[in-house]
Amino acid sequence: MAQAQFTRETAATGEFVRQPNRFTDRVTADSDAAPGDGPDEAGRWPVQAGRYRLIWSRACPWAHRARIVLGLLGLDEAIGIGTVDPIRDERGWRFTLDPDGRDPVLGVEYLAQTYRASDPDFVGRVTVPALVDTVTGRVVSNDYPQLTLDFSTQWRALHRAGAPDLYPRELRAELDRLMADIHRDVNNGVYRCGFAVGQQAYEEAYRALFDRLDALSERLTDRRYLMGDVLTEADIRLFTTLVRFDAVYHNHFKCNRNKLSEMPVLWAYARDLYQTPGFGDTVDFDHIKRHYYGTHPAINPTGIVPLGPDPSGWTTPHGRG
Ligand SMILES: N[C@@H](CCC(=O)N[C@@H](CS)C(=O)NCC(=O)O)C(=O)O
């Protein structure tokens, strides 16, 4: 079988099977821990302004999700943000964008140092996003799906005035189903296309991806957002994949039935979000392209980063809303 990008996450069928998230503690409003303390007996850390730090890469769709939610809720006042270099070296994510190559608060050069401080035996991929405790230097969570839901539901006391409710209680059952479909077929679906090392595994992922995009396009024909008139977590999760689609997934991950810009409803929907404060201003096509094309040698051995596509279409009128 062909050389896999991540051998330990590749099934015998050639299918990419993502590793589980290692750190699944939560920061919750009902934690019994006092401010300054570690987690309570149930693993719940206290909500506390200025204590935690979100480490993200501008390249990464899972981390980008957390960054957008933080901004929309105004939690970027309460939770610090550290940004890693889009290119990992053999020791992983680096703080080379910061003075002296260290995160100014955590004092580390590599995100791996916080993983090791939390679990000396950890052997998987060190991933972003990671919510790190600045008091103990430990990783609280790299559980990206729970992280953003907790920002919405557990951190309410520190939201900005007028913050949107991205996870409304009355919509949760439908939202959870929708987000599960989007995760399987779209967010992780593009990776299942790109990291497949068997023809059949690739084709299955490709079909599921474009079938789902067609269904989402249909859904968005007569409504502005996935749940209707209100923006929710599901839109953010779909956006972070759509915004990378033509720049990397279409070519690098072979998701090439057509480009996003050739799917009129989804393209207008994605531009609408891009032009909403908190979305486009967090997008960095340079980081996105350098990360994907530059760090997957099994897929792009030369590491050459394509110059296109022209991103200027993102700011053109979308005609929605
Ligand atoms: N935590 C998840 C998703 C997050 C994730 O995969 N992030 C990527 C960037 S998009 C990452 O940090 N990769 C590090 C690596 O591949 O070594 C996982 O373990 O699969």
Automatic annotation (TrEMBL):
Molecular function as annotated in GO: oxidoreductase activity
Enzyme class: oxidoreductase
Coiled coil found in the keyword field: no
Entries under PROSITE patterns matching the protein: GST_CTER
Domain GST C-terminal: 168-295
Record bears the keyword Transcription: no
Record keywords: Oxidoreductase
Disordered as annotated region, ranges: 21-44
Domain of life where this protein originates: Bacteria
Enzyme Commission number(s): 1.8.5.-
Pfam families in UniProt: GST_C_2, GST_N_2
Classification via InterPro entries: Glutathione-S-Trfase_C-like (IPR010987), Glutathione-S-Trfase_C_sf (IPR036282), Glutathione_S-Trfase (IPR040079), Glutathione_S-Trfase_N (IPR004045), GST_Omega-like_C (IPR047047), GST_Omega/GSH (IPR016639), Thioredoxin-like_sf (IPR036249)
Record's protein name: Glutathione S-transferase family protein
Organism (species): Micromonospora zhanjiangensis
